[in-house]
Amino acid sequence: MHELRALLFDLDGTLIDSAKANYAAYSRALREFGVLMEPEEIGRAAAGRQWREFLPALLRRAGLELDPASIARRKGELYRETLGELRVNVGLLALAASVRPKMKTALVTTASGESVRAILRHFDVGNSFDHVITGDDVIRHKPDPEAYLLALERLQLDSRQCLAFEDSEVGAESAEAAKIPVVRVTFST
Question: Are 164 and 182 in contact (CB under 8 A)?
Fold first, then answer.
């Protein structure tokens, strides 16, 4: 049995309930490009996935030849304007704060670095983590284990010394592929 030395937290859906604001920002960005798509439809396509994985296919299904990267950039701008609509998982943030400095903590997300920094500033929780891994730090996004493997490297710990908190199947697969035990988290409404 290995001593638990670090807690690793996902962001979207785990520490922050961001789904509604996230999908609404995609809907608004698409509307600016002339595409009418409801947030719920986007949510079904996007759940737990990074824009590169779902947006091109969503546009193709709609018969559109738009640049997914441009839409994703605009979505990011719109999303950062709605941070006040996000809900925080107070219990998990309290856990992250309470274990420090006895235990290391890391935020492991494949969301864009700019959005992650904006959220951390908005909720004043940046100091809750020893390391922050974002989508800007990796090439392959969850469910690939690259983000978790990078966190292990930066923490200088073995996977058996860590525990990950994830909400999605994609995130859990990522942590498990890095051989990190996972606690599944859900937001209650």
Answer: yes
